[in-house]
Specification:
Blueprint (H helix, E strand, L loop, with lengths): L1 H13 L9 H10 L6 H25 L1 H7 L12 H21 L2 H21 L5 H17 L8 H18 L9 H19 L7 H27 L3 H13 L1 H11 L3 H8 L1 H9 L6
Helix pairs in contact: 2-3, 2-7, 2-8, 2-12, 3-5, 3-6, 5-6, 6-7, 7-8, 8-9, 8-11, 9-10, 10-11, 10-12, 12-13
Length: 293
């Protein structure tokens, strides 16, 4: 029994299970921008698809990075020996299949986006991560996750939230590549500038016809997003050591939630946005037990 519990805990660490709370709002923002009705069943299926594909990427990341992690993160499940490389790879494959199945159950238009999303996740972890194209590949995956909520026939309407979340993801990914070694102050400073730019662009691109309540909710949520991500990025700019860079990456991951909520409110779903925001304190609390990075 103890062995089974230990293995289960290692799997939770492998996929960074609580961090999946930071992807649930992608498809909500995409659906709101696309003007789609969001019946509970479809919302749940899309959330399941996003979660499974995210977890697959985390498991595949640890499989691909097992040799690097042996030196930089020996406590991770694979280099510590708690999870074998084969198990990590099989977990990634199974979760990818589950994600595509969940997307298919939400409709062919969702599956049409989920397939290139899954391909991007695998390409990033196995080929692109340590190249100059790594941050762009990760940003593309996040953007596709947003577009999955809108569906392939409504991608044009959801391009703005997809681009904004992709831009934020690019900045976080760029910082994460240096979180174990430290970096020049220009790296977190660039991420801080990107956070400000995303917040300003989201406010500026609000549809003119948006209701006052939607605008007010979006403005408040965008302020929360900038504060959530920007404060840690500013701290890392002052002292760009590994500890502060890691905090900036973690804060940036969690700041996805108020940004997603703001973009969902932008699309007219204030109630869904406020419901989504409730995941933010939970994600931060659980990150103390399982690191999102």
């Amino acid at each position: 029994m103890t062995g089974a519990v230990t293995t289960a805990h290692a799997l939770v660490e492998l996929v960074r299970a609580p961090a999946a709370l930071t992807v649930l709002g992608d498809t909500l923002a995409g659906a709101a921008a696309g003007g789609r009705p969001a019946p509970p069943g479809r919302t749940a299926r899309l959330a399941a698809a996003s979660t499974c594909l995210y977890w697959a990427g985390m498991a595949l990341n640890d499989y691909a990075d097992r040799e690097v992690d042996a030196g930089e993160r020996p406590h991770r499940p694979v280099p510590s020996g708690r999870i074998s490389p084969r198990t990590a790879l099989l977990t990634a494959a199974a979760l990818t299949g589950a994600g595509l199945t969940a997307a298919a159950s939400a409709g062919r238009d969702a599956l049409a986006v989920a397939v290139p999303l899954a391909a991007t996740v695998w390409a990033y972890d196995l080929a692109l991560k340590n190249t100059p194209y790594g941050p762009a590949a990760m940003a593309t995956a996040r953007g596709l996750d947003v577009l999955m909520g809108a569906g392939v026939r409504r991608t044009r309407q959801a391009l703005v939230p997809a681009a904004l979340l992709a831009g934020h993801t690019y900045a976080i990914t760029a910082v994460s590549r240096a979180e174990t070694l430290g970096a020049a102050a220009s790296l977190p400073a660039g991420a801080l500038a990107a956070t400000g730019a995303v917040g300003l662009a989201a406010a500026a691109l609000t549809p003119p016809a948006a209701a006052g309540a939607h605008r007010a909710a979006q403005t408040a949520l965008l302020g929360g997003y900038v504060l959530a991500a920007g404060s840690a990025q500013l701290s890392a700019t002052v002292r760009p050591d590994p500890t502060r860079l890691k905090r900036a990456v973690g804060a940036g991951i969690h700041a996805m939630i108020p940004l997603q909520a703001a973009l969902t409110a932008r699309g007219g779903s204030v109630r869904a946005a406020l419901t989504l925001l409730a995941a933010y304190p939970l994600a931060r609390s659980l990150s103390r037990k399982v690191s999102p990075t």
